[in-house]
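Q: Sequence in, structure out?
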Amino acid sequence: MELSDSVVKGLQTLADPAYMDFKSFRIFTEAAFRSLLAFPTHSVLDYPELKNIDQALLKHCHIAATTFILEGVKQNADRSTICSCLEDLRFDSERVDAFYELYQKSKTNLEKLLASIDTCAPHITDVSWRLDYCIKNSHVHKVNQPSYLISFNTENGENNGASSELNFSCTLEQLQDLVGKMKDAAKSLERATQL
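A: Exactly. Output:
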């Protein structure tokens, strides 16, 4: 697994028995998995068993551990991958086994959690527009400007393709800018699919 330097340093600190004894490690690891699976009622810093540990370093280790956990689940890492990664980071066999045991128990729920995160943005299925001409504004000043009322019908990947409507108004210049940007985006997408 590819891990950033910050994550590696945090995990190496977590592996150090001088920094955290095995009992504290076990509590910390359970708290890290719990923080990913449920809305945390309290943070890792609230555990009385972890109060004697430097709090800034504890936060760093928590971020590193949760990043490692999510990366392992994302890549569908097996026992050998997780264990060899942790051993490379100087985890002893007792800590590796404890970590992997919790990883295995939580893996299915974490996979469901990651699968529920939808990154598919709504896409436009239809456009309608109307031209309005504003003669005066609410302050009784003459305006004499055209205004375009645009309505985008969008379809979202989640909610079984539920559609919604996005309405806005714009000037001629804003509409021309929008059309130009949409054409650029379409060309960029076309080039990206040809690679």
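The helical segments are 5-15, 22-37, 55-74, 79-88, 93-116, 172-194.
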